[in-house]
Design brief:
Blueprint: H1 2-9, H2 13-24, H3 32-38, H4 43-70, H5 79-86, H6 88-120, H7 130-148, H8 155-178, H9 184-188, H10 199-205, H11 207-214, H12 230-256, H13 261-265, H14 271-280, H15 282-316, H16 334-354, H17 358-384, H18 395-419, H19 421-431, H20 434-444, H21 452-474
Helix pairs in contact: 2-12, 4-10, 4-11, 4-12, 4-17, 4-18, 5-6, 5-17, 6-15, 6-16, 6-17, 7-15, 7-16, 8-15, 10-18, 11-17, 14-15, 15-16, 17-18, 17-19, 19-21
Length: 480
């Protein structure tokens, strides 16, 4: 009987595919068409950008899947791959970047949440005024109090949130063609832009949005332990990924056939609400905004836990300082949770004083996660360079895995380059403080802080951070 029960608790192909799609779709799909337009991308560059993203992200996902099979003992998130492949300090920075990305993404969610509430309650405006920040701060600390009480499972909330974000998407995809609001002339008008930005620059401008759309896709690899058949994991990963990519491209194409690039760029968040309103009337905007509000409210609970779990698990593995590994009587990561959300609060103050937008923060969050993604792909490329690292594998399978690793690595480099020099400098400001945490953690273990090459990396990070701060004060760069 126990054996049969175990089988019924496992996931088949359909269940695995649904979980991959449900866990990866976030708030980005409701804003992505307008965000790309705001960055200067026109129809042709958007389609090329999605093509590059599709190839690159799939290679990254399959690299994560390969690493999970070859190195199942590395359970400390994607940053454990960087530590194993390139040393303690590089691994720490991968963990730090992943953590920073998670908490900054929470800030972007809060601004979008109150921006959506602004549709019903104008007092919240675009979600970045004083009342939005105050209410957002209260909401953050209510979630902290909830998690401190030991709320570690949010299955019902997750199900409700998933349904609420899928219903508006389905209505959008069906309503635009049925109401004949898609205009092919609008779609093809100014297809390559007006010459203000080169095609290459436009394609690069799509990168942060496409990365944001697929953040979390690496989580698909953990589903392998829950699969009824191991062969289902690869099939579900491919099907789920292609389903997600198709969904994003369909939404983008339909949006670009309703409004011009300039009109899309002028829309407030979430842009899908205003696009659907054009197609079906005010109730369309109401539906999307309600879906976004409930979706984000549910997602924020999960991301509050994830953002705290990052440093908590890293500390238990010896990557962060011991203090991050402390938990309360309810087994909640109390110190990591409090530190994480103090930082979230600090970034919310930046929202208040700079009127920073959802787009600004998710761009920074996407930039922070690019290094962990790149280092994971590079580690897989390192492993696949020698057959013995992969065990019993045929020549054909080895060639395939090498291709995934190489393409994933190239895409990782592309992500960082296309983000631009401003985002590169901003991320150095966020990475540099981690050096102090790393040094303290090493001292707690009575270990020397740096190897020679690691010291050089640390010095470079500090120099870049100092330069970036100077440029910020001079007004030469402004990420917000």
């Amino acid at each position: 009987m126990e054996r049969n029960k175990t089988k019924t608790n496992q996931l088949g192909f359909g269940g695995l595919t649904a979980m991959i799609i449900g866990s990866t779709i976030g708030a980005g799909i409701f804003t992505i068409a307008g965000d790309m337009a705001s960055n200067g991308a026109h129809t042709g560059s958007v389609l090329i950008g999605w093509g590059i993203c599709g190839i690159g992200m799939y290679a990254l996902m399959m690299s994560f899947f390969g690493l999970n099979k070859v190195k199942p003992e590395l359970t400390n998130g994607i940053y454990s791959y960087a530590k194993e492949g390139f040393g303690e300090f590089v691994g720490f920075n991968s963990a730090w970047g992943y953590w920073m990305s998670a908490l900054i993404c929470n800030v972007s969610y809060i601004t979008l949440l109150f921006g959506s509430l602004g549709y019903f309650f104008p007092i919240f405006e675009d979600g970045n005024n004083s009342i939005s920040v105050i209410c957002g701060s209260i909401f953050v600390w209510l979630l902290v109090a909830l998690v401190l009480k030991g709320v570690r499972q949010a299955t019902l909330i997750t199900i409700i949130a998933t349904i609420c974000k899928l219903i508006p998407l389905f209505v959008f995809i069906v309503a635009i063609p049925l109401t004949a609001k898609f205009d092919f002339e609008i779609f093809t008008d100014n297809f390559w832009g007006n010459g203000t930005l080169s095609l290459g620059s436009q394609i690069m401008a799509t990168t942060s949005s496409t990365v944001w759309a697929f953040i979390g896709v690496e989580g698909a690899v953990v589903l392998s332990a829950r699969a009824r058949k191991s062969s289902d994991v690869g099939k579900a990963s491919l099907t789920g990924f292609l389903g997600l990519l198709a969904l994003y491209v369909i939404v983008a194409v339909l949006s670009m056939g309703v409004l011009t690039t300039e009109e899309l760029a002028s829309l407030d968040n979430p842009q899908m609400a205003q696009i659907l309103e054009i197609a079906v009337g005010p109730w369309g905007a109401t539906l999307v905004n309600i879906g976004v509000i409930i979706s984000i409210a549910g997602a924020l609970l999960g991301w509050t836990i994830i953002a705290a779990e990052c440093p908590y698990e890293a500390a238990k593995q010896g990557v962060f300082t011991n203090s991050f590994a402390k938990s309360n009587k309810n087994d909640s990561p109390s110190v990591a949770l409090l530190i994480t959300n103090i930082l979230v609060q600090a970034f919310l103050l930046i929202v208040l004083f700079n009127e920073s937008s959802y787009l600004a923060f998710y761009t920074i969050g996407s930039s922070m996660i690019m290094l962990p993604y790149l280092l994971s792909a590079l580690y897989y490329a390192k492993l696949t360079s020698r057959r013995k690292n992969l065990g019993d594998i045929s020549s054909g399978e080895l060639a395939r895995e090498r291709i995934f690793a190489i393409i994933g690595s190239i895409y990782g480099v592309w992500m960082i380059i296309s983000a631009g020099i401003v985002q590169f400098l901003v991320t150095s400001i966020l990475y540099a403080p981690g050096i102090l945490v790393y040094i303290k953690g090493r001292k707690e273990k009575n270990l020397s802080s740096f190897r020679p090459y690691e010291r050089n990396i640390a010095i470079l990070l500090v120099c870049l951070a100092v330069l970036s701060i100077i440029l910020l004060f001079m007004g030469t760069i402004n990420p917000f």
